[in-house]
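Minutes, project huddle
Topic: does the predicted pose make sense with 4'-deoxy-4'-aminopyridoxal-5'-phosphate bound?
PN asked that the exact inputs be recorded in the minutes so nobody has to dig through chat later. Recorded below.
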Amino acid sequence: MSEDNPILPELARGGGPSRSDGGGAGVAGAAHRPSTTGFAGGPPPRSGEDLPLDVLADFPAIPEGWAYLDSAATAQKPRAVVDAITRAYGETYATVHRGVYQRSADMTLAYEAARRRVAAFTGAPSADEVVFVRGATEGINLVAQCWAGTQLEAGDRILLSTLEHHSNIVPWQMTAERVGAAIDVVPLTADGRIDLDAMERMLTPAHKLVALAHVSNVLGSVLDAKRAAELAHGVGAKLLLDGCQAVPRMPVNVAELGCDFYVFSGHKLYGPTGIGVLWGRAELLDAMPPYQGGGSMIDRVTFARTTYAPPPGRFEAGTPHIVGVVGLHAAIDYVESIGLERIHAHETALVRETREALAGLNSVRVFGPDDSAGIVSFAVEGVHPHDVATILDEGQVAIRAGHHCAQPLMDALGVPATARASFGVYNGPADVAALVKGIERVTRIFG
Ligand code: PMP
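Predicted holo structure (tokens), as shared on screen:
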């Protein structure tokens, strides 16, 4: 349910973006996206819930016949999010935290309601533990600089994995170099998961921090995050989870997972770009110095001495991305109106169907575990992934080709790049069929 929110009254009524409302789902989407019979099915839908999802009509930027399969890069936006942003700029706009006039007070309420919404959505024990950042990249940099940069000493160690996104590698390298810490890398299992048995063997009391992707943006592998937390805590290390690809695809509860920091980006969760979330345990955030200096993050400023606001304000210097926060709130309402369990089942089924179809093609290599979440990386023998993506684009299928900001993983896989199809709530069996047809065409052209 939405929190009381004067800026988003319809959201405050708890309806959120209904799949049956005016801007909402359903009818048109059902009409223009033919269904195929090949839906292999994942976990059975929960009672009363139909799969595959049929919410395509909620997404104004997806034209008829276009198979958008790049949601791992960024998700398309539902009308409810577009409308919330339009309303926030076009009707209710004002600054937050400073104004004494009513409009600003209302916007401040909306901004803080969104923070509580994020806390409820992620299972954070307190909204004060939710820091608004630009995205996962900034969240990780913040922890690398303000926590690791002040807590780690020469000789300490940081543990990462082979499949991390560059944004969960480079910030740690920068901090490690500065403080004299070392970085170790957990290998992957043969099917492309972070090898937690290897991690158990590698961890030592010198490890102060473990930072892992909850879901891989290349392989879709899902981390056993609870076990990772237990292992990290077993040697006294903290665990940061990069939840960029998990939060849009499955229910996430940071308290249940037992991690210490969690980051994600709004734009992959059907929300705006430029807004993301860092969650951190209160005692860790309390002990951290500010990230950037400026307005809003202070308690009292004099030229002799400045004192800082408590978290989360301490980490939100300057005028924040007010409308981004409002849009993120709408995005969370949207995904929850569908249900994360249901989204997960939907995407898992699409992945299964894709993997089964590609396994039947001789010249195609599929990466990652069978139960990967929403993401399928593959290679067509003898064809550069960019050529694969270009030919698919001719058939109205949009996939990503490249190293996916995971060059160490490409090295481990022994390829310069992969082609990657990634799913969202708006995809259906027809998109899988279009993808497979396009790949068959690639094999014919190059065969
Ligand atoms: N981690 C993962 C797993 C990602 O997929 C991405 C985005 N591709 C990021 C981090 C970085 O996210 P952003 O660019 O939104 O900060």
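Observations noted during the meeting:
- The two ends are 53 Å apart (CA to CA).
- The longest strand covers residues 207-213.
No decisions taken; revisit at the next huddle.
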